[in-house]
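The protein record passed on below.

***
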Amino acid sequence: MRAAPRLVIGGTGSGCGKTTVTCAVLQAFVDRGLDAAAFKCGPDYIDPMFHSRIIGARSRNLDAFLCGRETVTHLLAKNAGEISVIEGVMGYYDGMGGTSSENSTADLARLTQSPSVLVVSARGMSLSLAALLRGYAEFEQNTVRGVILNGIAPSMTDYYADIVERNTGLTVYGALPRDARCAVESRHLGLVTAGEIADLKQKMRALAGHARAGLDLDGLLALARTAPALDDTQPDYPRCGDGLRIAVARDEAFCFDYADSLDVLAQMGAQLVPFSPLRDARLPDRIDGLLLCGGYPELYARQLSENRTLLAQLRAAVRGGLPTVAECGGFLLLHDTLDGAPMAGVCGGAAHMTDRMRQFGYVTLTARRDTLLCAAGERLRAHEFHYAQSERQGDAFRAQKPLRARGWDCIEATDTLHAGYPHLHFAGNPRAAQNFLSACRTYHEEAET
């Protein structure tokens, strides 16, 4: 068992300020010299980038659908710090959809026995704020213990605290004011990435200043320390990747990956070798496999198309049998064109960006035939979200929404290729990771003969 003080920062809904408050609290804890760890509930890639820039280490995703409920607790225990801050997703009870709170922030808080504070915008409310918060506190079995008020002047904290604490029993841990200097722009799929904001550190320092002035940080730490110890037993992965080198796309265009997913491959013995499809003229030397993650290739389509040497080598390597997993943005790179710009031309067809979300949410993928990652009839859990439309979506798998009858064919796949829009997490699909490395082993041995 491992002591793991932790705190969930949930919210009344998207846009209430969860990321702002989480970053403010994290920066304030880091400034105190605490060994802080950061986590994000759900599959989002962008919020953890902001966490990572603050704590100086990779933030981790905790997603019970993608990883499995028991695995989520193991991942939290493995990566916990002296204080761990877990940012919620959407509204506190919003998860799989419909009438189910499964996979919501509330669900994760219960699963990991983590106390929660709820971020709420109090602007335009008085006593109605108490009615709203009482509903959150009394709905289902929950772990909400307190409230952080967002977007109000700290001078109003006592006024709102009296209303909330008198009528709900929840503790108000302070308030953060509105500050236009700390605003972060948005685009399709969410906020702009942390690496695109030149003055991010200044913004975070300003937020930390507001946190020190307006939040009861000692009270939040005390609340976090009420969380019980976690079982830190970790999965025993087979060492099937020793001696294998896996190239991993990593730059501004390809930045959507899960740290714990990559860790599975490393724990199986594989060496992960980062490279940049934007800037590197060649793939890394002596590689046995390739991971092309998602990101924003559409923002860099012209620059990618001008890297002709890399695209030609990529095309030759994948067509030559280099085991390859390409997700979403990586899948777009393997098309003939993206918004008219030439790409690697492996999967064929044209892809283009649209003005609306094409697919969004969790899916279960069932293999229709034997492929790189699994045999016919086996299933993978995944998440899909993209604005791109493709002429070659693939048909190796059948995607099914968890709570709906809707399904569709997807993914271009062979015995050495898995390329499609859905994002996977190897911590929830370790058998797929083994199959990938097994193909990499075969490729490695054939290259040596």
The radius of gyration is 23 Å. Residues 430-448 form the longest helix (19 residues). The chain is about 30% helix and 25% strand.
